[in-house]
Each structure stands twice: as structure tokens, then as C-alpha cells.
Design brief:
- This protein is an all-alpha fold.
- The chain has one domain: Arc Repressor Mutant, subunit A.
- Helices cover 69% and strands 0% of the residues.
- The chain is built from five helices and no strands.
- Helix 1 crosses helix 5, helix 2 crosses helix 3 and helix 2 packs across helix 4.
- The mean pLDDT is 88.
- InterPro entries: CdaR-like_regulators (IPR051448), Homeodomain-like_sf (IPR009057), PucR_C-HTH_dom (IPR025736), PucR_C-HTH_sf (IPR042070).
- This is PucR family transcriptional regulator.
């Protein structure tokens, strides 16, 4: 999927608002690392689970992908990879 430049660019653009906000990025990365386990992700971040839930809702609002959905979590994970991958062209900002 990431070998398709138009797909990779779209995913990188989608995740950009999350990447720009460190607490949201940290929450999403922890959630992904803990395979969608909210309690474990909150422990990893040393925050209350309701704080994590709030941040995940903000991720959904910014991306249109609900992190608690397995399919959407996979999409968000791939979007993070697209955003950070040097071989994937990043969106041009004007």
C-alpha cells in the first residue's frame, strides 16, 4: 500500500494533525503498541484511562478514523509509517 505514492501521501496527510500534537501522537503510539488495550496504553503513558480515551476521541475527530476499531487502528498505524518513512513522499504544503 505504501508503495503507491498517492495512497502514502493521502495517509501521511491524514495523520499530520495528530503528529503535530505530541500528547495525541504519544497516545496513539502507546495504543498501537499495546494492541488496542486502553488500560495498558494508559499505564504505559502514566495517565488516567479517561485521559487516554479523550485523546483517542481527538485522534478520531482529526483523522476520521476511530482508533478503537481494529480496521481503523491498522489504517492509523500505516498512516504513521507513511508519515515517518523517508522513501514515502510527504505532502507538499503551500
Amino acid at each position: 500500500m505504501l508503495r503507491q505514492p498517492h495512497v502514502a501521501e493521502r495517509l501521511a496527510r491524514m495523520i499530520e494533525p495528530v503528529v503535530a500534537q505530541q500528547p495525541l501522537l504519544d497516545a496513539l503510539r502507546a495504543f498501537i503498541s499495546e494492541d488496542g488495550n486502553r488500560a495498558a496504553a494508559a499505564r504505559r503513558l502514566d495517565i488516567h484511562r479517561s485521559t487516554l480515551d479523550h485523546r483517542l476521541r481527538l485522534v478520531e475527530r482529526l483523522t476520521g478514523c476511530r482508533p478503537t476499531s481494529p480496521r481503523a487502528l491498522l489504517t492509523l498505524s500505516v498512516a504513521l509509517t507513511a508519515h515517518s518513512s523517508p522513501q514515502v513522499p510527504l505532502p507538499h504544503t503551500h
